What we know:
CATH architecture: Orthogonal Bundle
Largest sheet: 5 strands, mixed
Strand order of the largest sheet: 1-2-10-7-3
Helix content: 40-55%
Mean pLDDT: 90
Low-confidence stretches: none
Shape: globular
Order of helices and strands: HEEHEHHHHEHHHHHEEHHHEEEEHHEEEE
Structural class: alpha+beta
Amino acid sequence: MPTLVDQWNIHPDHFWLTGKRPEQLVEYNEELQMWMVYGYPEVVEVLTQPQKFSNDGWRLVDVPVEDWVKEGDFAQMDPPQHRKLRGLVDYAFTPKLVAQLEPRVDEIVHELIDDLAGRDRFDLVSDFANPLPVAVISDLLGVPRSDRDLFKGWMHALLDDAGELDSPESIKEQEAAMDEQFGLLREMRDYWAEQAAERRRQPREDLLSHLVHAEFEGERLSDGAVFNIANRILINGHHTTELVIGNTALCLIEFPDQAARVREDRTLTPTLIEESLRFLSPLAGVMRVSTTEVEVAGQLIPKDQMVMAWCGAANRDEREFANPDVFDAGRSPNAHLGFGRGVHFCMGRRLARLEARSATNILLDRLPELRTDPADPPKFGHVVDATGVARLPVLNG
């Protein structure tokens, strides 16, 4: 009899979701010319030692790349450069500032549910989990509400075919793929340059104004740096949060005993969300590059090798988690890697948790009878480095 996971059409590389374990904690994939790291302590080692495992993926790219593509992109930097730029962005996500957003997040959640409450069926991802973070990030950056559809289009174009592990391509194939991506990035760069110019003329109380007027090593950020930082906030803040909200909603529906626990005791909402982050890790895998010869779990990884640290597999490691294939809304402790670890720990994790907490509590209050549609089961996205429901058709009532 097919299991729930079989019906979800998960990515074939996400074997841990089916209860399987890796044959080796660290192994080399000949076809992909890449090292795979699956164990919990081994993944933590890769993520927390940037001096051995660099986040600068450009170092192994042979295709020439224009400077503006990399300028100020802290997600592709290592310390100490990363620390300085990341500090500017972390300013927007301090606990105090995130807490101040809670009333607005609740308001947006209620507005979205107002549109859904009278419907017999809808897609909880496209109609709720997707528009919620887009609205919140748009408000945070201070961009017009009318541009939200533009952001959604960018998101689909960048993420729909991203993150697949493919065999090495020829230089010509790499150039063609990158030319297509650069065309979209130029469109996005021009948009943010226009927004930045407006903030220079007339600052506002928004994150984009803060970035435009912030100083980095005694200098203001360039348009290229503002573009890359704003893009990271928009894309990562939207995509990760959408996955967290959708995955948590799916867990509530498919594990009704756990939903009942949380409904009766709302102090469990935060631990429910953390368990969702472990059980269906939005950050399934993280790519790094070895900067030196290094031994991990007895395997010697040479210098300048691509290394994939599988957070999703690590979150099912019995050495760290008791009964890892059981969804437990009260699990504690729960040191999952659903948001990564180390200097590149997800910058928007506090905001994502706030949005997921608001969404969960209000869904439980206002739409308590949601259930999946037997004729149209949930479907997961097929981006290899992320785990998340892409379609979640539900019946209401």
